Amino acid sequence: MERLQKVIAQSGVASRRKAEALIASGHVTVNSKLVTEMGVKVSAKDVIEVDGVPLTQESFVYYLFYKPRGVISAVKDDKKRKVVTDYFTDVPERIYPVGRLDYDTSGLLLLTNDGDFSQKLTHPKHELEKTYVAKVTGIATNTTLKPLRNGVKIEGRKTAPAKFKVLSADIATKKSIVELTIHEGRNHQVKKMLEAVGLPVEKLKRELYGNLDLKGLNPGTYRQLSKKEVSSLLQLSKEV
């Protein structure tokens, strides 16, 4: 017997968190009976449906995607804007993004249909290091960025310590390029952290996720992760 939300996540319909939201909002039935409570356990004999569609177990797939700017980190958008899954029309599995990147942020994003994998990588206790490169307004120096090393307050809550590096600073244009590594995943976190030290972000790109990079990819392209890479990410998440 397994918890209902776990079974839904394993089927590739959604992440564990999204599966819980689907249950709570009345989208799930078990043996034709509506289930809205968490903790219900099901077996292989039970007929589970999400919005009237029976669950089927897909093979798990894992993709590394170079998300362009101007694309939503979702599987659909009410405003009809381009979403990340629009780039995966040849992939038969129902994949979804692991975490998110802002609409105007480019860079490395993972997609999968493995709910447990997604849950382990995005859980607040286990989030992996992510490295961003930001073009900012202002002259960045080690002194300017030093508060980030101890954490800064964002909306009343202090961030975890971050690592940084000044890649360039142009006095004439008053622009700088900064590399920032964090392991949290709060909303607009990198932009808010840099703004907190007086360096508003003009452009942002995620370069690294754990031990993965964008080597060999262009914006809008993707590749499948190897079994070794998947195992390595899960191992890193345990060590965090």
TrEMBL record:
One of its GO terms (biological process) is enzyme-directed rRNA pseudouridine synthesis. Pfam families: PseudoU_synth_2, S4. Residues 2-59 form the RNA-binding S4 domain. Its EC number is 5.4.99.-. One of its GO terms (cellular component) is cytosol. GO terms for molecular function: RNA binding; rRNA pseudouridine synthase activity. It is an enzyme of class 5 (isomerase). Signal peptide: none annotated. Keywords: Isomerase, RNA-binding. Belongs to the pseudouridine synthase RsuA family. This is Pseudouridine synthase. It comes from Vagococcus entomophilus.
